[in-house]
TrEMBL record:
InterPro entries from the UniProt entry: C1GALT1/C1GALT1_chp1, Fringe-like_glycosylTrfase
Name of the molecule in the record: N-acetylgalactosaminide beta-1,3-galactosyltransferase
Main localisation: membrane
Enzyme Commission (EC) number: 2.4.1.122
Entry GO MF terms: glycoprotein-N-acetylgalactosamine 3-beta-galactosyltransferase activity; nucleotide binding
Pathway where this protein functions: Protein modification; protein glycosylation
GO cellular component: membrane
């Protein structure tokens, strides 16, 4: 019995020793890092700091992402307010204008169709009489369309795009180009051409007027038949618009040279398909001869920031919608950059008025254009 008590006492002693050792070991784990010999309090503090740092980094990343997102939104919603004036006619309202309304026209700050008849479903506005709505009346329709736009919306928008109902426009790329310029400067953008020694922008490719350019057209040119052709049957409206704008000090900005890092055309008098094949003979001679910048063909013919294409059939408008806004190439990453902001002195140097029309009085023109 005494041996049993001795054994039981030794067992209690051993149990107490083991329990004490375990407690001491657990306590040491709170104080020391056994593997690294680093003060565990410091490790815990470092871990907490790391967690806080990671949380802060995550918050910063979220803020940075938010900031980038807001910055992108602010750029997209920046004061690049573009009113789109699209010329159409009763015959083509459903055939063409309806598809402009359903595709790229939705991205205009304001979309206005002008015609010889009102058409309420698309908001088409009558600006000329139905009896005078043909190709030969394009100048009248353009003049009166701009008059309507100026009277109704002149102070609400910064830029005014004139396009035909068979033109397709990538509005984001137009915003991108215009973001380098001030709408309070007298500017006029498009595909620059030259005829009768007069420079102008192709009407089919569409062209853009700054608010100041449109103001000068309406306030100084519209009512003066010595510096701007009066209303009459004239089909080449783009040519006459070029005369009017230059005679009131508006600078022509050829889209090919509109951005410092992109020297390729952005407005196209023909459908893009005409340009993409090397040696394509579908480029007419008149276009090559009248274009101020060289007309190239092949896959590198055109700007990556191309803006407008003429002679676009309705079904092709939807093709462009898919290719531009829906189709994605997996793994491709695009490096975007905003264009350099031009000062007016730089514009004066790069796009001087003296390189354009020097007509002071239309009645003194040595070579009279069509129907003048």
């Amino acid at each position: 019995t005494s041996l049993a008590w001795q054994f039981r006492g030794q067992l209690h002693l051993l149990t107490g020793f083991i329990a004490g050792f375990v407690c001491a070991f657990v306590l040491l784990l709170h104080i020391y890092d056994v593997r690294n010999g680093i003060n565990c309090s410091t490790t815990i503090s470092s871990s907490s700091s790391l967690v806080r740092s990671s949380a802060a980094s995550m918050r910063f990343a979220q803020l940075q992402t938010k900031s980038q997102s807001e910055s992108e939104w602010e750029w997209k919603a920046a004061p690049v307010r573009v009113l789109c004036m699209v010329l159409t006619c009763p015959e083509y309202v459903e055939r063409y204008a309806r598809h402009v309304h359903a595709t790229w026209g939705r991205r205009c700050s304001k979309l206005v169709f002008v015609s010889s008849e009102d058409y309420e479903p698309l908001g088409v506005v009558q600006v000329v009489d139905p009896q005078v709505d043909s190709y030969h009346d394009l100048w009248n329709k353009t003049r009166e369309g701009f008059r309507h736009v100026w009277q109704e919306y002149g102070e609400q928008y910064d830029w005014f795009l004139k396009a035909d109902d068979d033109t397709y426009v990538i509005m984001e790329n137009l915003h991108h180009m215009l973001s380098a310029y001030d709408a309070n400067m007298p500017l006029y953008f498009g595909h620059q051409m030259r005829r009768y020694n007069v420079s102008y922008m192709s009407g089919g490719a569409s062209y853009v007027l700054s608010r100041e350019a449109l103001r000068r057209f309406m306030k100084q040119a519209y009512g003066s038949n010595t510096i701007c052709p009066e209303a009459r049957k004239m089909g080449i409206e783009d040519f006459y618009m070029g005369i009017c704008l230059q005679n009131v000090g508006v600078h022509l900005v050829d889209s090919t040279r509109a951005m410092t890092y992109d020297d390729k055309p952005k407005f196209f008098p023909l459908d893009i398909e005409n340009y993409l094949y090397n040696g394509n003979e579908t480029i007419p001679t008149w276009l090559r001869e009248m274009s101020v910048s060289e007309v190239d063909t092949g896959i590198n013919c055109c700007s990556n920031y191309s803006i407008a294409f003429h002679y676009t059939k309705p079904e092709r408008m939807y093709l462009y919608e898919f290719l531009v806004y829906r189709l994605r190439v997996f793994g491709r990453k695009y490096v975007e950059q905003l264009p350099k902001r031009w000062t007016f002195s730089e514009i004066l140097e790069r796009f001087p008025l003296q390189n354009n029309s020097e007509i002071l009085d239309l009645r003194q023109m040595s070579d009279k254009p069509d129907n003048f």
